[in-house]
Amino acid sequence: MKVLSYDPELCVGCYICEEVCSETWHKVNDATKSNIRIHDDGEGGLSANYCVQCGECIEVCPTGALSRDKRGIIRLKKKLCVGCLSCVGFCPYLAMRYHRDQVEPFKCIACGKCADECPAEALAIVEVETPSAPGLQI
Amino acid sequence: MSKQTKTTRRVLAEYTYEPASVEKGYTGQTLYVNVSEHTIAAKPVTDVMKDKFIGGRGFGLWLLWHGVKDETRWDDPENEIVVSSGPCGGTTQYPGAGKSLVVSISPLTNVVVDSNVGGHFGPLLKFAGWDALEIQGKAEKEVIVVIDGSTGRITIEEAPDVPVDTHLVGHWLINDMAESEEDRYYMSVISAGTGAEHTRMGCLNFSLYDRKRQAPRFKQAGRGGIGTVFRDKRIKAVVVKSDPVRGDSNAPADPARISRAGIRLHKEIHGYDNEQCKMRVTGTSYLVQIMNDYDLLPVHNFRFGSHPDSPKIKREVWEDYFTQGLPDGCWYGCTLACAHAVDGYTVRTGPYQGEVVIVDGPEYETIAGVGSNCGIFDPEPILEINFYCDTYGIDTISFGTGTAFVMECYEAGVLDREKTGGLELRFGNADAAIELLHQMGQDEGFGKIAGQGIRRMKEYFVREYGADADFLNDIGMEAKGLEYSEYVTKESLAQQGGYGLTNKGPQHDEAWLIFMDQVSNLLPTFDDKAEALHYFPMFRTWFGLCGFCKLPWNDISPPDNKYTDEPAKIPEHVQNYVDLFSGVTGREIAKEDLITMSEAVYNFQRVFNIRLGYGLRDHDDVPYRSQGPVTVEEYESRTERYDKQLQEVLGLDPAKMSTEEKVAALREYREGQYEKLKDAVYERRGWTKNAVPKVETLKRLGIDFPDVVAVVQKHL
């Protein structure tokens, strides 16, 4: 499957990825609505948080709203979602997101927009056999 | 499964309506259906109802109070079944927020019973436009009631082809009425079963459509015989259908406040359930081994609290039976997910022998009730009984405790094969227990007598067989006419009160104080016990006013809970409930308000019981089996414990006493303690020594309505 990958060594902490993502999916420049979040530990260390498509949320979803598509990406069918946010609480990477402005949760679907716009080439869409933890080089 | 034929449905009454939208957890309307007169009507929800009775059980009591007369009995047409979820019911973001509360006059106790049940009915009823459903009357012929919120149409119909037993009727009606797969998701059926009509211990089944199993499943409003009332009204089923459920269907005042609390608890469950109760893996079955280890698991009709064979029915056994990895909540968003099921179970006996079914459960109460308490330490017959109890519409707790009583009577010689029609009802005889259940389903043999419950069996055995009434009263584990749920209370005076000093009868949903009292010794004085028997019944009542389940309150706890001032109350979760209620209704409350809100409803229910001719001090008596060893055998099984108490508390010398003398001395002491407990608790609750709420208490709680005050004044 094709997933997002992130290289902390290349990341310059410009947060353009957050802008691009929230603009793409929520039509607003608001990092709290971005599917990817960059974290600065205050000591120069940067890390990224985004969905690695591990699929653990599929099991906890009571309605079948979460499933893996043909590309291997976990997708949310809003029509089936009852907004219970179980997936938000049970995501092992805390990468399923909630925002008070909408009922349904949201997540990275590896669309690649952030990778296209990343000036440092820290983000990329790569082919993997099995998902891994975010923030690691893939 | 029985073959489904084309269903003939004849409409007897029809009502069309524009479904009221939900606003801050309420629709502002309740639905009245009279199956005798074929009346269907809307009633407004008044400010008094919302302010003082909140919803759920509170709405049920209020509507029932105004629907019945002082002399109404369970099988009178004016008795009602009221179903209501409460303002928070239908919330999807917080675990355990989809319960329905059912209220009626009980055929077992003759007073009001309330039962808290999962399944989707209550929330879908609200989303179909109704805060409560009030059913009155008795149909001339068998009927079904259909509430379709998506088309705004309610009907009372004859449907002669529709079966009665739950696993059949649930599938049948959903197959018949759903026009698409998605329709099934937003339908729920209430049904009982053939056993409910032949016994007094009938339960109601509330369906949920399990999307991952693609089949309906059923949760039970078990206690107090409401299924019997349902069948007495000649109702086969009530169906509700709503528009699709969404995360904002309950239209809360502050959605973000609810979501924050929900995500916090989801994370807590994700992080700690596996090291705490493992509810997600095995549900409440985890309690079996713990209860056995603390000598609290009922064995052989509550004579003992443990048994060497209990590991055969412990959690690990059920882990293999339960299908793992499914989101087994009884309402959306319950990640505690205790509603496990055994899939692909092949029925071994009776009319459905050979059918492959889903068994919903078993939960702890069923395992302990029909298992250890009947001396059955084998999961297979427990599953068989669980399935048939549900589909026949029989409460597993009353069946288990009732059968354990029968078994002790059999072994004590009160009963024999002749009296039971050939059933050798000894402890451990699973085949006989299963056959007894089939007899209840088919209205045959000794099942007709046993199905009447322990109180009426005692009267029958004394009258017909000349049995010793005192002995039966000592060993018959019922109070107020309701069979005990499944905990041994001999060493916890507080929990004796937790069962006895209740409104509906001995069900642990009011208070479960055994660990606080017996294990941790946190309630050493009568004042301590009285305070606990004030706080916890009130706190737990609150769940039933709002549509919550009790389990996510304390079957999971934050890891730092033990460092809080009052760990038994789970302070962080109490704050969650404050946030949830305020966030849904927009009515800002503090944690103390939870107690006063419940107090109003709890006291109203006590007055209701008094109005119906019960509810006084003597009605809070409990059988001695719940307080101490009745027999020499029981005493001698725990001699060291009891001798120590005689020595240390009573200053007696056990070495100079016969066992009979020791049993008598211990009994005199323990029964005296219980009477002192009554005094302390009644005083704390603002009641007289005769358990009557004082007028000043009613005034303080704002429920001093003239008709309520008139009831208590007769007893002051």
Note down, in words, how this protein is organized:
The complex is a heterodimer of chains A (138) and B (716). Chain A is of the alpha+beta class and 138 residues long. Chain A is built from four helices and six strands. Chain A has helices spanning 16-26, 56-60, 86-90, 113-117, and strands spanning 2-6, 37-40, 46-49, 66-68, 74-76, 123-127. Chain A has a two-stranded antiparallel sheet. In chain A, a hairpin with a 5-residue loop joins strand 4 and strand 5. Chain A is globular. In chain A, 40% of the residues are buried. Chain B is an alpha+beta fold. Chain B folds into three domains: 10-241, Aldehyde Ferredoxin Oxidoreductase,  A, domain 1; 273-483, Aldehyde Ferredoxin Oxidoreductase Protein, subunit A, domain 2, CATH 1.10.569.10; 495-556 and 590-713, Aldehyde Ferredoxin Oxidoreductase Protein, subunit A, domain 3. Helix content of chain B is 41%, strand content 13%. Chain B has 29 helices and 17 strands. A seven-stranded mixed sheet of chain B has the order 1-9-8-13-10-11-12. In chain B, strands 3-2-7-4-5-6 form a six-stranded mixed sheet, with helices on both faces. Chain A binds chain B through residues 59-64, 79, 81-86, 88-90, 98, 100, 103-104, and chain B through 92-93, 185, 211-212, 244-248, 255-256, 259, 262-267, 269-270, 325-327, 329, 332-333, 335.
